[in-house]
Amino acid sequence: MLPLVRKRSRPGEAHGQGSHEVRFTKVTIYLVERRMGRSRRRILTNLARSKGFYVEDILSGTVTHIVAEGNPAMELWLWLRAQGLPLPARLEVLDISWFTESMQAGEPVPVETRHRIQDSSQQLGTVLTSRVSQYACQRRTTLDNRNKIFTDAFEVLVEHLEFSDSKGPCLAFKRAASVLKSLPSTLRHLGDADGLPCLGEHCRDVLEEIFECGKCSRVEDLMCNEKFRTMKLFTSVFGVGPKTAEKWYHRGLRTLQEVVSQPNVHLNKMQRAGLLYYRDISRGISRAEADAVGRIIAETMHCISPSATMTLTGGFRRGKAFGHDVDYILSTPESGAEEALLLRVIDRLRYQGILLYCDYQESTFDKERIPCRRFEAMDHFPKCFLILKLDAMTVEDGGLQNNPEDQRGWRAVRVDLVAPPADRYAYTLLGWTGSTQFERDLRRFARLERGMLLDNHALYDRNKSILLPAKTEEDIFAHLGLEYIEPWQRNA
Ligand code: CTP
Ligand code: MN
Ligand code: MN
């Protein structure tokens, strides 16, 4: 059957359908300009019209086929909803591939699933109606954070409260951010937060403001607040916590230059190293750099003990592309040899001339005193916090994440090493993999839901008064009656 050829007089005509013949009356296309760009949209519009397609310039109720290019689904649907038009179920929201194929065919090709840009918030609806757990260890949180606009705001508030030592409200914002990070898509309106745990009144106020104005005024104020900015700067130095930062601020200090040049500012060894290598260690460490550090330590370690092994942990084990440090667990097959191993590794690094800083903490581990009842207590294993000199030659392909102006062929990197006894390995691996919020909730879940005590050393069943042995992380999840969560799903 020949397509019906006619000229149409429609509101769109005024916007440039001009004298082009409309050959396909059942299809009215609207091309989304965002991400496509104005000029490409104009070119595509002209092309379609020349082939007899009807293209609307304005998004209206007569549009049947919306075509977008390069828009993430979630973003596109947020934008579409914001246009305030009814979105009938028949409306096709399509990827540019449908348009391109139709242009090639010279007629609208039938819409297939692969052409459609799916509304991912329907997925969100499913999640919101099924209950989201209040515990991060019962949620799967990847690095794909769909609610960054909200979690960034919460994290600024967290930082501010950490500076003023307000633990309660701080934790509330941390938990709220963590819940939002686990969602498969972006919150569309305040109502979406209704079924979610950990989103109290203060958190909802923040969300509401962001929905209304696109930003949170408290956060905006903080970002230009001199004290907040100075505290952020000072606490970004290795070895400087909120107390020291506050002290410096009250002395009238505002820059790191001022801190270093003031003769009466006392700096401890850690802070001196933190300031000396500030430019390097305030830059993220890439995965390639982390691997290079791993190779150096592995070689060093194997010279001492061929049977010793090491495992990358911390943020890199969770799949992060960048970290503030590199965390490795060293282990020996026989319990008891780990402390000597770590000490000898440190000695060799020093001998190689690459140990720029070392804070060694000897073992205070006492089998009789596990598990520790205190929350978030540091573990008692031998460990060290290092700054190593990483040579560019040792880093594969990517090279160093250096300041471009620092052409010295090396950079300083922060490295943490911990060496637990072999039978404590699984607990240490679980504890050092993080995230901090994930660990916090694992312990809280163990205590409140299972009557168990968990830390980096052990899992203790208070009801049965026994320590539960574990060889792997899976064993620990199983003891807790939790579904296993992969490291890359622990970015809570
Ligand atoms: N950790 C610990 N005991 C320590 C030091 C760290 O249990 N003495 C744990 C933390 O609780 C965290 C993990 O080790 O879960 C990693 O800590 P850290 O390196 O500070 O954070 P990352 O998650 O690795 O983040 P980043 O990439 O910024 O380093
Ligand atoms: Mn780390
Ligand atoms: Mn660390």
TrEMBL record:
Mg(2+) binds at residues 325, 327, 416. CDD domains: NT_POLXc (cd00141). GO terms for molecular function: DNA binding; DNA nucleotidylexotransferase activity; DNA-directed DNA polymerase activity; metal ion binding. One of its GO terms (cellular component) is nucleus. The keyword Nucleus applies. Keywords: Magnesium, Metal-binding, Nucleotidyltransferase, Nucleus, Terminal addition, Transferase. It is found in: Nucleus. Residues 19-116 form the BRCT domain. GO terms for biological process: DNA modification; double-strand break repair via nonhomologous end joining. It comes from the Eukaryota. Its EC number is 2.7.7.7. It catalyses: DNA(n) + a 2'-deoxyribonucleoside 5'-triphosphate = DNA(n+1) + diphosphate. It holds the Pfam family DNA_pol_B_thumb. Belongs to the DNA polymerase type-X family. This is DNA-directed DNA/RNA polymerase mu. It comes from Denticeps clupeoides.
